[in-house]
Structures are given as C-alpha cells and as structure tokens.
Fold this protein.
Amino acid sequence: MATRLFDPRSLRWKVAALVALACCAVAAVIGVLVHRAADRSAERAGRELAAAQVAAAQKEFSLTGRRPAFADLRTTADLPAPLAQAVADLRTPGAHALWYDVKAPNWYWLWAAAPVGEDQVIVVRTDMSAQVRSLQLLDRSMVTAALAALLVVVPVAALVAERTNRRLSRGSRAARRIADGDLDARIGRQGRARDEITEISAAVDAMAAALQARLAAEKRFTADVAHELRTPLMGLVTAAGLLPEDDEAAVLVRTQVLALRVLVEDLLEVSRLDAGAERARVDEVPLGELVAHAAAQAGGETRLRTEAPAVVPTDPRRVERIVTNLVANAHRHGAPPVEVTVTGARITVRDHGPGFPDDLLADGPQRFRTGAAERGRGHGLGLTIAVGQAAVLGADLTLTNAPDGGALATLALPRPPGPTHPEDA
Amino acid sequence: MSAIRVPEPVGVLLVEDDAVIRRSVQLALERYGYEVDVTGDGLDGLEAFRAGAHDVLILDVMLPGLDGISLCRRIREESLTPVLMMSARGDALDVVAGLEAGADDYVVKPVDIPVLVARIRSLLRRATFHRAPAPEPAPDGRATDVSDLPTGPAASPESPTAPSSPDLLVFGGLTVDLRGLEVHLDGRPVPLTPTELRLLLAFAENPGAVLDRRRLLRDVWDYGWEGDTRVVDLCVVRLRKKIGADRIETVRGFGYKLVRG
C-alpha cells in the first residue's frame, strides 16, 4: 500500500487527475462566459453613456452654439482616421458614430462623435480603462477561485478514490491468497456501497466458494476411490501371498498383483498431489543416511557419493519417495553406472544412458508417457510423482541432461533460514 | 527380524468387514504361528475382545455396527492391549482419529503380510517388555534391552534417582520403577499401554535430553524412515494426559524432552 502511495499509475492519482481536469475545464468555460458577459455589459453601458453625452452635447451646441465642457469641437480632419470614416458613413442627421480606441496598456477610450454644421464634429471621449481593469480583476479572481477549488477537490477526490482503491486492493489480496492455496480467503462485503466493486467482490467470492467445494468434492472422491480400490487390492495381495511359492502360475499372479498394486498406489498418490491435499511433515533429516537408505530401497546398483551432507528440516518420507523414484527411473530408462550424489542440501541422480527425451525436458514429465514405450517398462508416473512431491517440500527438482551424456536430476532442498526451524505440528 | 518363539501361541483378534481380507489375513497370520480370531462387525468385535484374552488387536477403521475408532476407544476404557489400526484411506483424519482413540500404531491397506507381522512383533515386544521385566531371558531379541535398563543412564550421578533404589526414577510427583515397570503419579498408579510405557522409559532413560521424533519412532516403534511421526506426536499427547501435560515439553522443530524434577 505505502509503496503505491506515490505511484502515478495508481487509480487514486488517476481519479484525482481526472477530477482536476474536469474542474479546470468547468472553470475555463464558466470563466470565458462570465468574462464575455461582463465585457459586453460594460461596453454596452459605455456606449449608452457615450451616446447620451454626445446627444446632450449636440443639443447644447445647437442651442447655444458653444460646446459643453465635457465635449470637444473638432474638424473632420482632426479626427482619428477610423472615427472620421465612421462619421463620414453617417447618413441620418442627428446620428452619432462610435469608435472604441484600444491603446495598450489598459488605456481604453470610447469615442462618440456627431457632426454639427459644416466640417465640424462634436466629440465626446469616455474613459473605459476602469471597466477593463475591473474585467481583468474579475478574470484573476476567477482563476484564484478555480485554483482554490482544485486545492480542495483534488485531495477530496484522492481520498474518495482511496476508499475504492483500498476495496480493490483488498480484493486483489484475497484473490492472490486464493491462488496461493488459501481457499478460505474471501473478499467479503465492505461497507454499504452497492457498486461494481461489490459486484466483482461477490463474483470472486462465489468463484472461490465454488472452487473450494469442487476441490473438497475431489478430495473426498480421491479418498473414497482409495478406500474402494485398496480394500479388494489388499484381499488380492494377501490371497496371492498364500499361493504356493514354487508354482509358476502363482508367480505370474503375484508379479501382476504387485504391478497392479504399484500402479494403484502411484495413481492415488498423483491424485492426492493434484488435489493439493498433501502437507509436508517436517523433521530434522540427515540427508546422507536418508539418501543411502532410499537408493538401496530403489534396487539396482547405485554409486553413492556424499560431500558434507546437510541436516535439513524436511519431510523424510517425501525425500525418500523422490530419490527412490529418480533412482528407479535411472535404472529403468538410463544405463549404468547410476550415480547418486549428496552435496549439502542438494541431491543429484545421474545415469549414463541416452538422457531425458526432448519433450520431457521441454514440457516436464507427462503421465503415462514413458521414455521408452517400446520397452514397455514403467508406467510413467514416477517422475510426475517426484515433481509433485518436490513441490510439496518447496524443493527445486530440475531435470536436465549432463553435457557428456546421461540424464541428470537435481533435487535442491530448501535450507533453513536461521538457527530455528518452523514447527509443523 | 527373528521370529518370536513364545511358549504359548500369540492370540490375535482381527476385526475386518471385508470377507476376503479377513480370511486371507487370518490364514497368512496362522502360517506365522499366530492364533487368530476374526469378526466382521464392530459390536461382535467388542464381544470377542471381552470373551478372550488376546495379545494384539487389529482393527479396520470402517466397520459395520461400531466403527474401528469407537471400538478402539471402548477397548481402551477397559484394557491396555496393543491395538493396530488398519485403514484403507490413509489420509490424515483417519490416522489421527485412530491414534487419538488410543491405537498404538497404524498401517495403510494394502499391507504386505511380512510388514503386518513386523508391526505385530513390534507391538508384542513392547507388551512382553511390559509384562516380563524379570531377569530371565525374554522370549524375543529384545531381551538385552531389559537387562540393560538398570545399568543405563539411571546409574549416572546426574540422574534424579533416589539413592536407595537405582531402579526407581523420580521426577517430582512422577515415579518410574524400572524393575517393576510401574509408574506412579502422586502415589497413585498410572495405567500405561506398553507403547506409552516404552515411550516414557525412552524419556526416563534420558531425562532432560531432547529426543527427536525420528529417534523415538525408531526406538519405540522400530520404524525406519518409512514411519509416520504423527504416531509419536499422538502417543505423546496420550502420555501427557496420563502423567500431566507439563511433564513432556515440545522442543519446536526437534522433538520432546522429559522435564527433570
């Protein structure tokens, strides 16, 4: 939140900028209209005054033959050119001509002139600078008012947008938590507002609830399937174990029962991993001992090398499962010698066969796709399980090919951050 | 692991509703020399348990009549006989519920008969250890453990043992008699299942030392890496209920220790 306070891309500042822009536009339009209206009325007042004065002067002149004090008597040649033109254009007797003399700066005169007798014009000049100045004052106070309004409106807009912002970021936090696997996370209703944010919050919550219900159903299904498969399988395994040792048919049955059992267990494991139901049970594990045990468990001849094996907090049964699967995979699809190395918290399994196929390196392990279909050995779940279990442990499992040939799998277990380790129980 | 040669056959009660498993496990265990009683119903199982003295009980979790968890709880109310739960689900809830109800161990179906036999032997070893602490040779390979005990850490000068009897360990109000294998809390006897007793002895042999869960799993349950440490955690919970919650401390991330005095 705090890091986003000054981020110009934040919605808060976008809304504030938009409000400021709207505010400025309104102020400009109103300002122009007011300015023009004031200008026009001042000019009209000036014109009326000038007309009245020139009419009065004209009357006095015609009665007394003398000009009043406020008027001038000039010859046509004495007049400024535009006024002289306007006077010459007059048709009706007794009419007057007006000329607005704009002189920079701010010294405006409104001239009114009416011809009296031959070649003589009575002229009245009205000072318009006061009006112009008051107009300028009006403009300035309107700009000041607009700026003051902006000073109030922009923070208010930012504050109002802040609320929206907060609701939105609360929504995105909840969504991220759901994505991280916390299916109980919800945005919830915030305040009484009924707007689009409420709508999208409700929609996201509904989606999370639906997702959770589906995952729960899937987990239940997996558990039920496990029960339904394991019960007859156990009967089969135990009964097959009762068959005579030296009977060829019995050996065939036992072999197939074993294969079926491994397949069922692996499938159940994959579906448990898929359902995200697995949680690591962390203990302090000496990797050297554990990997030696796991490599022996996998069968086949394996060269084990340990260099300063670490004691790490991890789930030993999952590490064993990963290593066993990797070693079994190396024996099945690779070629000897199969080498297992433990260096610190890093375990590598390497063989000297053809290496991992390209599509596996590109897309990761795919279920039931074995490296050697023609050999028909293995069901292709081993690496999928290894990758899934590594994810449960928060470990990195990378599958590559060694530069001098052969598949190379590296399991890097997370090291503890400090001397104390989190408790899982 | 060597076979147990017991003077009289070991009696096993198997309560399992699936007829094939029931019969095939019975036949397989009989080949190992066990005497196996079977029932397919939880209530019948309770009756069969009360009728005959069995050395080990194997209970399925899902049973008609009375489910395995409840059956285990009922049995625990009147007996300390070792109980092995057999679950087809293997998910956390089943296992935890079974162990909370007082089961000593659990296996997930399908279980190989040799594995099942190994589990039964481990339970019996704890039980025989419980019953026959006398110096005469115990019937199984664990005999050395029994004779070792009195000269174990109990003899060290640091131990809280009362000087008059090297076989009596005293931890405040808790006394553990290594020879008679009896535990008293404030003068009253504490009934412990063989597993709980083995666990307490593992602690009592190392008072104040932190024992990690893997080690306890290996020493008490005979598990290698394949064991589930929840078995230890839940047995510690049960033991705490019997001898007082503050006697066994949890050491975060490592294991447990018995508080010295």
Notes: DSSP finds nine helices and twelve strands in chain B. Chain B has two domains: 11-131, 152-258. Residues 59 and 85 of chain B are 5 Å apart (CA to CA). The mean pLDDT of chain B is 80.
